[in-house]
Write a structure and sequence with these properties.
It is built from three helices and four strands, in the order E-H-E-E-H-E-H. It is α+β, with helices and mostly antiparallel strands. It has one domain: Alpha-Beta Plaits. It has a four-stranded antiparallel sheet, covered by helices on one side.
Length: 100
């Protein structure tokens, strides 16, 4: 199992990405959570409300899922991080079925 961690400016933009990946069977599921982000941008420290999305996918689908997220992402410099994961057997079986 592979997790793609991505940050979006709104719940709506994160939801659109999730829906696109789910419809394309590039993610079995997604979690969207509000967060506060601190970062340096153009020489200034910023504090913004953002939305973290975690997409659960497979090694076989991760490249296409990442490309789709980046293609539709509204930020100039989007954050998409790939994390290897190991889920419980029942969840892995379900996720593989959703990604077919």
């Amino acid at each position: 199992m592979v997790l793609l961690y991505a940050v979006f400016p709104s719940a709506a933009s994160a939801g659109k990405a999730a829906l696109s990946l789910l419809e394309g069977r590039l993610a079995a599921c997604a979690n969207i959570m509000p967060c506060s982000s601190l970062y340096r941008w153009k020489g200034r420290i910023e504090l913004q409300k953002e939305f973290v999305a975690i997409f659960k996918t497979s090694k076989a689908k991760v490249r296409e899922a990442r490309v789709r997220i980046l293609k539709r992402h509204p930020y100039d410099v989007p954050c998409v991080i790939e994390l290897a994961g190991k889920a419980n057997r029942a969840f892995e079986k379900w996720a593989k079925g959703e990604l077919r």
